[in-house]
């Protein structure tokens, strides 16, 4: 009997990961036969767990918190977008037996915004809150959409300034602290801080969101996050969380592994329907 093609997500913690469900739904929908499991892998066991997984016939891996930077260091051969983001969320076994590292988070976000929600990024004034790994992963794909301007604001100002400088090739990206956001307005505000998950909000001035502006939290939960609630209170045209991004980054990984692009809308709708009371 031949074994099913094996895929997995590694992370710590991993119990609540929606990735196995999403990939099984994709497989069902596209008629692909595969196995996708979740494995709890603490950072110190990452290297041996990856080696064991691929030595045992694994075909592809997703890596999530806190392993994306470790995966970036682990894999020699990376796509350009992974190289830039300094994080790898997808490992794919190549025909020659080598591993390719990719990062599908940024394209997942852009697809969710532009295709699923019809939000044009070109010509928009965009603000990213936070200057950690989550921010780094989305900057290049956002700049590719030619926004009018991109501002990165962070509690530790120096990190935002440095991150912006790394991606600056024409002056449309700048880094700053939250206090200088006063009297500025943005068409799209993306929350890439980890504050929202713990129910905290960065100190944002009123009037920051332009009329008909959109808020998007990269995090998601069963309940609206603190940032999604902030968007609603500030009359955002849409105030969204990152569930769509999660499904889109998974679809991109599925495509890399299987060469087939699953339909994401039915999967997003199903997961959304399950978290509504
Ligand atoms: P990730 O990989 O999820 O981006 P990270 O690299 O630890 O995680 O970055 C977390 C981000 O959330 C940082 O930008 C952090 O700000 P600092 O660089 O000043 O630490 C931001 N963050 C976390 N808690 C915050 C809070 N309560 N208010 C504002 N920003 C916060």
Automatic annotation (TrEMBL):
Pathway: Metabolic intermediate biosynthesis; chorismate biosynthesis; chorismate from D-erythrose 4-phosphate and phosphoenolpyruvate: step 4/7. The keyword Cytoplasm does not apply. It catalyses: shikimate + NADP(+) = 3-dehydroshikimate + NADPH + H(+). The active site is at 68 (proton acceptor). The keyword Ligase does not apply. Residues 9-91 form the Shikimate dehydrogenase substrate binding N-terminal domain. HAMAP family: Shikimate_DH_AroE (MF_00222). This is Shikimate dehydrogenase (NADP(+)). It comes from Candidatus Methylobacter titanis. The gene is aroE.
């Amino acid at each position: 009997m031949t074994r099913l093609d094996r895929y997995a997500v590694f992370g710590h913690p991993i119990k609540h990961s929606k990735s196995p469900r999403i990939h099984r739904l994709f497989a069902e929908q596209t008629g692909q036969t595969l196995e996708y499991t979740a494995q709890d892998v603490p950072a110190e066991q990452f290297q041996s767990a990856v080696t064991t997984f691929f030595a045992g016939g694994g075909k592809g891996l997703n890596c999530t918190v806190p392993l994306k930077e470790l995966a970036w260091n682990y894999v020699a051969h990376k796509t350009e977008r992974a190289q830039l983001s300094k994080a790898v969320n997808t490992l794919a076994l190549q025909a020659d037996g080598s591993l390719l590292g990719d990062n599908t988070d940024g394209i997942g976000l852009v697809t969710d915004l532009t295709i699923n929600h019809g939000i044009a990024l070109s010509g928009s004034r965009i603000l990213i809150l936070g200057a950690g790994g989550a921010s780094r992963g989305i900057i290049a794909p956002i700049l590719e959409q030619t926004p009018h301007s991109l501002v990165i604001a962070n509690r530790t100002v120096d990190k935002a300034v440095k991150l912006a400088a790394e991606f600056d090739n024409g002056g449309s990206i700048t880094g700053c602290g939250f206090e200088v956001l006063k009297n500025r307005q943005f068409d799209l505000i993306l929350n890439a801080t980890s504050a929202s998950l713990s129910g905290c909000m960065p100190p944002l001035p009123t009037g920051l969101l332009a009329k008909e502006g959109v808020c998007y939290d990269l995090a998601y939960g069963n309940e609206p996050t603190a940032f999604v609630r902030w968007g609603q209170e500030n009359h955002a045209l849409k105030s969204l969380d990152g569930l769509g991004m999660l499904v889109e980054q998974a679809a991109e990984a599925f495509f890399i592994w299987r060469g087939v692009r699953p339909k994401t809308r039915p999967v997003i709708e199903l997961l959304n329907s399950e978290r509504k009371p």
